[in-house]
TrEMBL record:
The lineage of its organism: Bacteria, Thermotogati, Synergistota, Synergistia, Synergistales. NCBIfam families: BREX_PglZ_3. InterPro entries: Alkaline_phosphatase_core_sf. This is PglZ domain-containing protein. Pfam families: PglZ (PF08665). It comes from Acetomicrobium mobile (strain ATCC BAA-54 / DSM 13181 / JCM 12221 / NGA) (Anaerobaculum mobile).
């Protein structure tokens, strides 16, 4: 077959059965391409990880209508995450046909325990390699070698000297390759046999992206000094420079294959430039983004370089992983635009406006086509906000001593996280951030998206609460009760942003506490009072972070042995008024970026007055919850007025930070 997906999809032909019961221990039906094709063929996927939630969907949407002789227009697929279909209720076993799918069936000659650790995005390359090379039955280690060579294009035997290792790690970490830990262990053990790498911190820099870039960062000034000294007086002893990471002090940054990556690392904020006198560098130097000679010139260079990088990385048919990666490039560019003392030249302004328009259009088209496929993806690597609690639950289950704090900063956009992060690093250089991102719920409202983050479920499962956040703490407690934790094991604190009260401090110090949910609403309050646009948002976030609240809160959590994660329920954008609908009280929520109706005809009527607005399909929402979203960077306010708001589907509103915080 042309693809591994074809093997699975052959089991799902149109009109084959009303109900199909699938044993899917590897979550293959959740893969983006399979999910979309099944929807196109008329199959509706229902997970069975929550019996109550399953019954709600199955009984209301399918069985009751089948019993009344109605045609639903789609077929139900019940997905079980184990092979034990016989444990399902009798009525389902009687009504449905049974199917089992597994990676072991798709890759019969490769070690199943090893293949099962791979992310879905790498299965295409593995399937092609299997088809091309037809390997015989392979054991664990040979399977790991096969995956390294043909999936990640890493051939351990070719890594013989420092430049080879640096090239492999630069490519791996810059591209964000997610190599499974057991494959990393195999690679590290192989490299440790080479005497040339005996002093390198391989256990850290091979698998840890942030540690690798920190390793490069502290050696970058040493490399610049060698240029000024023309190679004289260079000491290879790392202790002389106070380096945190072991290994050689001098790295071959100027190797022709290595320096290809250096510009992009500095452009995207993965490495940070250091002050340097122009006389220290050759006239035709290639490390221009890694040094600060003239601050204004460095700013313009980086702005133009980031715009080039954004344009190069904006492609058709991007997968969700690519959008999440792209969002950080875009956030770095926005943060640079709005936090600098130097104004953008007119040519850059025109280019930025064109980029915003292009990104808005492409992102909206992608969201309309692919958003529904994100909801049921595996929480092993959270893709949407409601995946986060299940991801945290897996961490808690692994060690009974683990304590976790989820710190949700209401309304924090990804570009504003860049500003907040940079200030935090200035205040406490020991803080380290493992950065990723997740999709917020649409419409990007607090009552929808924030509650989903604490409920661990799509909004359709809390229809009575979706218009308020008053019962958010109950949803949080209910989720953890379902995971076997008592009320004494959990905490929920909201309204943070100015100081940590003694009461809150005492709660966080409790010995029994295992999981804490914290809401910082300061940025949301800043946003709703903002009159100076996005630049004003960045300025006030900078000032607020400088005051030290976030640093102090993180210190309290880390000092009390919490594993800390930061996220946001949605971002925000600067929007321009297109007029305010004159509809009295017909809209339940009269937001600036979105209007909410309980009656479909009322939404249709308002749409007629604003033809460019979007009637959002109620994906994962209650049946009586209809959203009308304002056009790109527009708001339902007085014409030409400017506001900072949220509720829509721009990349700034929808893609939120998800950060793991550590202290070095």
């Amino acid at each position: 077959m042309a693809s591994w997906r074809d093997i699975i999809l052959s089991e799902f032909q149109p009109q084959i059965a009303r109900l199909t019961l699938v044993a899917d221990p590897d979550d293959l039906l959740l893969e983006e391409g399979i999910f979309e094709e099944m929807r196109a063929r008329g199959f509706d996927l229902i997970p069975f990880d929550d019996n109550v939630a399953f019954r709600y969907i199955y009984e209301s949407k399918f069985r009751s209508r089948w019993d009344n002789g109605e045609e639903t227009g789609s077929m139900a697929v019940l997905r079980l995450t184990s092979n034990e279909l016989d444990l399902l209720p009798y009525d389902l076993l009687q009504a449905g046909r049974r199917v089992s799918i597994s990676l072991a069936d798709i890759f019969p000659n490769l070690s199943y325990p090893v293949v099962a650790t791979l992310d879905f995005i790498y299965l295409d390359a593995l399937f092609q390699a299997q088809d091309k090379f037809s390997p015989g039955r392979l054991g664990d280690n040979v399977t790991k070698s096969f995956i390294l060579r043909y999936v990640f294009e890493i051939i351990p035997e070719f890594i013989k000297e420092p430049k080879d290792l640096l090239l492999v790690l630069l490519r791996r970490h810059y591209l964000g390759m997610r190599i499974p830990p057991i494959v990393d262990e195999y690679l590290i053990q192989f490299l440790q046999q080479n005497e040339m790498f005996k002093d390198w911190p391989l256990d850290i820099i091979v698998s840890d992206r942030q540690a690798f870039f920190a390793f490069l960062q502290e050696r970058w000034p040493i490399f610049l000094n060698t240029l000024a000294l023309k190679g004289n007086e260079v000491c290879e002893d790392p202790s002389r420079y106070g380096l945190r990471f072991s290994g050689p002090a001098l790295l071959p940054f100027d190797h022709e294959e290595i320096r290809v990556y250096i510009d992009d690392l500095f452009l995207e904020g993965l490495l940070h430039p250091v002050p340097c006198r122009e006389a220290q560098l050759p006239k035709e130097h290639w490390m221009k983004f890694g040094v600060t000679i003239d601050p204004e010139e460095s700013y313009y260079r980086r702005i133009v370089g980031l715009m080039d990088s954004v344009e190069e990385n904006l492609k058709d048919n991007m997968r969700h992983e690519m959008w999440l990666h792209f969002a950080y490039k875009w956030a770095e560019l926005l943060a640079l635009e709005f936090t600098s003392d130097f104004g953008l030249p007119d040519t850059c302004k025109e280019r930025m406006d064109a980029l915003k328009s292009k990104i808005d259009g492409m992102f909206q088209d992608w969201i309309l086509k692919r958003y529904a496929s994100l909801i049921n993806l595996s929480p092993a690597s959270p893709v949407m906000l409601h995946h986060i609690p299940r991801f945290l639950a897996r961490n808690l289950a692994g060690d009974k001593r683990t304590k976790i704090a989820l710190l949700l900063i209401d309304g924090l956009a990804l570009d504003q996280w860049i500003t907040l992060r940079n200030v935090l690093k200035e205040l406490d250089s020991r803080l380290q951030f493992r950065e990723s991102a997740v999709f917020a719920w649409i419409p990007t409202l607090t009552s929808v998206s924030r509650q989903a983050a604490f409920a661990g479920k799509p909004p359709m499962f809390f229809p009575t609460n979706i218009r308020t956040t008053d019962r958010e703490s109950n949803l949080w407690a209910q989720f953890w009760a379902e995971q076997g934790l008592s009320t004494n094991d959990t905490a929920y604190i909201r309204g943070l942003g100015n100081e940590i009260s003694n009461k809150h401090y005492e709660v966080l110090k409790q010995d029994r506490l295992r999981i804490a949910g914290l809401v910082v609403d300061k940025i949301d309050r800043i946003m709703h009072g903002m009159e100076l646009g996005t630049a004003g948002m960045h300025n006030q976030i900078w000032q607020w972070t400088k005051q030290g609240f976030m640093r102090d809160l993180l210190s309290i959590l880390i000092d009390n042995d919490f594993k800390v994660y930061i996220t946001s329920d949605h971002g925000n954008i600067e929007a321009k008024g297109i007029g305010c609908p004159n509809e009295g009280v017909t809209a339940e929520l009269r937001g600036e970026r979105v209007r909410i109706y309980s009656d479909l005809s009322l939404r249709t009527k308002c749409k007629m007055s604003f033809p460019d607005s979007l009637e959002w399909p109620s994906i994962g929402l209650p049946e009586d919850y209809y959203a009308l979203i304002a056009p790109s960077r527009a708001a339902f306010i007085r014409k030409d007025d400017v506001i900072v708001s949220h509720g829509g589907i721009s990349i700034e509103e929808v893609i939120a930070p998800f950060i793991e915080v550590e202290r070095a």
